[in-house]
Amino acid sequence: MFDAVILAGGLGTRLRSVVSDVPKCMAPVGGRPFLEWLLAWIEPFRPGKIVLSLGYLSETVTDWVQNTLKDYPIPIEWVIEDTPLGTGGGIKLALSKVTAPRCVILNGDTFFDVDLNALCSFSEKAVTPLTIALKPMERFERYGSVILDSGNRITSFNEKRYCEKGLINGGVYCIDCGAGLLTDKPDRFSFEKDVLEPESAVGRLSGFISEGSFIDIGIPEDYALAQTFLPANIKL
Fold first, then answer.
1. Using an 8 Å Cβ cutoff, are 88 and 95 in contact?
2. Do 206 and 131 touch, CB atoms closer than 8 A?
3. Chain centroid to CA 184: how far?
4. 138, 130 in Cβ contact below 8 A?
């Protein structure tokens, strides 16, 4: 059993030219909010609950959930950042609502078709407090690459630069909630700089490779692609 956290508090500054009046997770894709596609994809995995980590225009999201998702079969809760807490602070706040032994963390502007049950099973066997779902990619420069050793431990993260072939952080994580990984962190911090990088340096991050479909709607070009990509990959 696992719970799921969706990070949906981003400002969406790079999308402002095409989506300016709603948070990124509510950007319309195929006539429906991106979040609706994400929730439809998560539903068959049956997490115990879903926690939305909200900030910018949070009432847009909470009103939509309360008015539209009355029949959604999984309980949905949320936390709201009164002031921006950084990627790490948002996760830590959301984890205060999690009750399952493991939690899957997803970005509210990215779809990565990972088998969440397999990810959690892999994470449990890996005996590290955190596992990252990694996407193999070719000819990319928008993302940093991830170095994985033969034992599926992440050893380092490379800065964004052109890469002919490699693994990227797909933005889907499985965390062992009992490991206290974020307990001593302040309310505001960076998940990438203050958790992922130092934990990889001491061998406490595992990598789970998935060939599933992937799209990040963070820039207008990929947001346009998502209009047909998501309806082709997710059934509502």
1. no
2. yes
3. 22
4. no
DSSP secondary structure string for all residues of 110-151: EEE---HHHHHHHHHHHTSSEEEEEEEEEEE-SS-EEEE-TT
Q: Which has the closest alpha carbon to 5: 137, 93, 113? A: 93
Segments making up each domain of the chain, as ranges: 2-233
Q: Give per-residue burial for 49-79: e unless 16+ CB within 10 Å, then b.
A: bbbbbbbbbbebbeebbeeeeeeeebebebb
The overall pTM is greater than 0.90: yes
CA angle (135, 12, 108) in 5-degree steps? 45
- Given this structure, which CATH class describes domain 2-233? alpha beta
Two tokens at 121?
């099973």
- The pLDDT score that the predictor gives to residue 14 is 62
Q: Would you say residue 15 has pLDDT above 80?
A: no
Confidence of residue 181 (pLDDT cuts 50, 70, 90): very high
Tell me 195's DSSP state. I
Q: What is the DSSP string of 197-213?
A: HHHHHTT-EEEEE----
Quick one: pLDDT band at residue 85, thresholds 50, 70, 90? very high
- Distance, CA of 5 to CA of 173 (rounded, Å): 10
- Spacing of C-alpha 132 from chain mean position: 10
Residue with tokens 């934990």: 199
Question: In terms of C-beta distances under 8 Å and separation of at least 24 residues, what long-range contacts does 229-234 make, across chains too?
Answer: 229/111, 230/29, 230/30, 230/34, 230/37, 230/111, 231/30, 233/111, 233/113, 234/37, 234/40, 234/41, 234/111
CA atoms within 13 A on the CB side of 87: 13
Cβ-contact 35, 26 below 8 angstroms: yes
